[in-house]
């Protein structure tokens, strides 16, 4: 049976705010969770992923979890470790203890962020391309994918790990023309990930059907995802403002964009 009650972690964040607007139309009854209060939702649970008691209570009785909470950009190793590694482990433990069947987890394109950006005409990046994180942040998402595999193999807890490109209302850079996922397509993909049968642990790339797409959307389509958007209508304006991606610009050379070239954040 399709999941009805879904815990949305990270509900106060950018993507969480978009998804708590869009997912109820698919019939989900959302329970909200975040470290900080969720605007306009006094019923939301305000707690840290490292508060195991709060987390266990939060997952009790839900059919599935959409796990978006965590640090969403590069940070110090210690902060990433606490929020994304330990925090995600606590979520999986709580879900296992309470018998939750499925987690849809926000992975990221930054698990392959150091991969050279495909040039126009190159084949799309395959799902089995070697993982090459560009940051500790990307590395924490690699951990999340492996954690999901472990909990499927050992405990039968299902996960769809979505390697999200850039999910924002509109693309704002030339790179985003390739990796953008419209909010509407994001909701369509999360819905597919919540309802597809027999997912075990499935990893997919998540984006719209962009003309300039860099990776293979077939794994997401196999879940039943049918993207309706393409960033191309934004291309002319963005390219006029910013220019095409330049082969000699290191910040344009890799899938992760500037994540792959920004200096480390200290303490490293
Ligand atoms: P965001 O930074 O706007 O939201 C993250 C939310 O998680 C925040 O509301 C924050 O308070 C909460 N959070 C952080 N640490 C927490 C903790 N220890 N306990 C409880 N809550 C905590 O990020 P955004 O853009 O909404 O991303 C959501 C998720 O999707 C993140 O996991 C991010 O890594 C992932 N993602 C997002 C992409 C995007 O395009 N927005 C692209 C790829 C991945
Ligand atoms: C991510 O993983 C980040 O969470 C998001 O803020 C964007 O930077 C996105 O990747 C991206 O690659 O554009």
TrEMBL record:
Provide the NAD-dependent epimerase/dehydratase domain boundaries.
6-167
The record's section on Gene3D superfamilies has: NAD(P)-binding Rossmann-like Domain
Q: Name one GO molecular function term.
A: oxidoreductase activity
Name the InterPro entries for this protein: Epimerase_deHydtase, NAD(P)-bd_dom_sf
Transmembrane stretches in the record are: none
**Does this entry carry the keyword Acetylation?**
no
Pfam families hit by this protein: Epimerase
Q: Which UniProt keywords apply?
A: NAD, Oxidoreductase
**Recorded superkingdom:** Bacteria
What protein family does this chain belong to? Belongs to the NAD(P)-dependent epimerase/dehydratase family.
Q: What is this protein called?
A: NAD-dependent epimerase/dehydratase domain-containing protein
Species, as recorded: Streptomyces griseus subsp. griseus (strain JCM 4626 / CBS 651.72 / NBRC 13350 / KCC S-0626 / ISP 5235)
Upper lineage: Bacteria, Bacillati, Actinomycetota, Actinomycetes, Kitasatosporales
């Amino acid at each position: 049976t399709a999941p009805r009650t879904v815990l949305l972690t990270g509900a106060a964040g950018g993507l969480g705010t978009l998804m708590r607007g869009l997912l109820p139309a698919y019939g989900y009854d959302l329970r909200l969770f975040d470290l900080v209060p969720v605007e306009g939702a006094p019923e939301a649970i305000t707690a840290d992923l490292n508060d195991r008691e709060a987390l266990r209570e939060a997952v009790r009785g839900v059919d599935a979890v959409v796990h978006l909470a965590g640090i969403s950009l590069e940070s110090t190793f210690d902060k990433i470790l606490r929020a994304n590694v330990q925090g995600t482990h606590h979520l999986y433990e709580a879900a296992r203890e309470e018998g939750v069947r499925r987690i849809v987890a926000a992975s990221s394109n930054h698990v392959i962020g150091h991969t050279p950006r495909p040039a126009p005409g190159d084949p799309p990046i395959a799902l089995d391309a070697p993982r090459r994180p560009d940051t500790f942040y990307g590395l924490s998402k690699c951990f999340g994918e492996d954690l999901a595999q472990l909990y499927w193999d050992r405990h039968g807890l299902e996960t769809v790990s979505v390697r999200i490109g850039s999910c924002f209302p509109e693309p704002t850079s030339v790179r985003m023309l390739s990796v953008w996922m419209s909010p509407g397509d994001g909701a369509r993909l999360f819905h597919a990930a919540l309802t597809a049968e027999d997912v075990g642990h499935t990893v997919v790339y998540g984006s719209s059907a962009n003309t300039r797409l860099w990776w293979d959307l077939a794994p997401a389509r196999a879940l039943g995802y049918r993207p309706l958007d393409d960033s191309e209508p934004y291309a002319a304006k963005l390219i006029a403002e910013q220019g095409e991606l330049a082969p000699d610009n290191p910040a344009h050379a890799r899938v992760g964009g500037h994540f792959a070239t920004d200096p480390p954040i200290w303490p490293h």
